[in-house]
Amino acid sequence: MTDLPSPLLSIARGDTLTDQAEAALRHALLTGGFAPGQSITIRALSTMLGISVTPAKDALIRLITDRVMEWGPRRTALVPELTLTSIHEIYTIRLALESTAAVCAIPFFDENAIAELNSICEQLEKAHVRGDYKNVLKNNYDFHFAIYRRANLPILLSMIEGLWLRMGPSLNLLYQTFRKKDWARSGTGFHQEIIAAIRSGDEQGVRDHVVADLTNGRDRLEANMVREPAETVALLSA
């Protein structure tokens, strides 16, 4: 499949075109805009972003160099398909890094920042009610990184983002789970518990709820790895 996802927005002139193309690709990967195994042609990418072939190719090369993507046949780039072993390894690291980032962020939260998290949760819940899984993934990313960025630990944030770049596409495999009635409780319920713990300054509570949230996602994802839902293809082309 070579069609590009809607989260891949056109870019404006400013920084180098390669930098902006890379940023657009990274955002799409982080928010589940690509499916595992999806192929992307250089020409299709340049057309989608409204730029020439050269910066589009250079942006792909950067991500391939970072092992976020890989070369495929006939001048295409491929989104890697993760194995159960790699999924488990990534989540093991995420549990440690993301719970630490969330705890470190607690002192930097005020009521305005708490309100921002609540707003994101509301948007996520509305997207779930609409059956809009693309925005569920986007809002989930927004929620987590609104917390992690407040820790003011750029090296840690970069490490977390690197793991999300590898994980983002595989989150599309949770689409079947997303459709189940218990998803809203297990998906957004943990977020509300994280917010409550941040507001009360409960470091252990924040750590525990972040770990519970990620563990829930990991378990559901691993359970879905044995099947590839047909809805994933329809989801990305919608």
TrEMBL record:
Keyword DNA-binding recorded: yes
Domain of life: Bacteria
The GntR C-terminal domain, residue ranges: 89-216
GO MF annotation terms: DNA binding; DNA-binding transcription factor activity
Record keyword Transcription regulation present: yes
InterPro entries: GntR_C, TF_FadR/GntR_C, Tscrpt_reg_HTH_GntR, WH-like_DNA-bd_sf, WH_DNA-bd_sf
Domain HTH gntR-type per the UniProt entry, residue ranges: 21-79
Cited Pfam families: FCD, GntR
Name of the protein in its database record: DNA-binding GntR family transcriptional regulator
Species assigned in the record: Sphingobium boeckii
Lineage: Bacteria, Pseudomonadati, Pseudomonadota, Alphaproteobacteria, Sphingomonadales
